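Our preliminary data section would be incomplete without showing what the modeling component actually yields. Below, a chain of 304 amino acids is followed by its predicted structure, encoded as tokens that our downstream tools consume directly.
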Amino acid sequence: MQYWHNSIRFIFFGNYFYGICAVALSIETAYQQAIPLNSVLSYLFIFSITVLYYTHAYLHHSYTAPPIHHERANWYYKNKKWVLVSQLSLTGICFFLVLIFIYGLQPHFKFLPIQTWLLLLLALIALGLYYGGWHPGKSGISLRHTGWLKPIVIAFAWACCVSFLPMVFYDLHNKSSKTYSLVTLFLFVKNWLYISVLCVLFDIKDYATDANQALKTYVVQYGLRKTIFNFVIPIAVLAHCFLLLTAYTRGFHASRVIFNTIPFILLIIVAWSMHRRKSILYYLAVIDGLMLIKALCGIAGSLF
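Predicted structure:
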């Protein structure tokens, strides 16, 4: 039992689950766009950069012993050697893959329109501003400290990673321009809205801390009930509308629409369950797990 408990903490606290979700959502994008899957190396890059990026926010917990009730921070403090090895390894993998991409795909770069480069630049700026510096635990300009903007920015970065980046890889390999199709735009907005809701739900676990620090998250400003009924549910419905637009544009069968609707129903159910305080692992496994469920339902709908 202890072995499984440690394994679960390793996967979720180490942010490897985020990497799995990013790969799954990227594969969903390929299926919903009706294009071949990208190379294994491209998905390895997406996995590595996601884990590397998310773990960076918690590195400062490895330096000093946190309060005993801070379960996640304590895990980083106790496993600081492994975290360092993991970060260095993932950095090396990303650097090596970038060199491979540059060497193998450099002749195809000229086929990418200027809009693609601007989009990638905008995503990098959003990722940088989210932390605000190399030491996110000390930075004073981090968008993570701007409660109302935080979920929008991180969801935008996620949507770029799982909706546009796979299409950029595809365009590079095939000298095409599917990155700017109407379906890609609909899928991007759907993912952006869906993940924004998950980010707001995740802020519920930090309600007490955020309120004490005068961090104006949606939950702190409007309370739990108004956040769920005035933000979470309407945005979930709006995201589902973009799913229906995608279905109409692509001519999805009704059964495929039903498969893709399941994550939105589960999202509302989970939001309703947030009236009671949960453990950190609940938030990581259930709330973030909705990203994996969304990807699996999207893939299943395409296959069956």
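The mean pLDDT is 81. The chain has 13 helices and no strands. Preliminary results of this kind motivate Aim 1 of the renewal.
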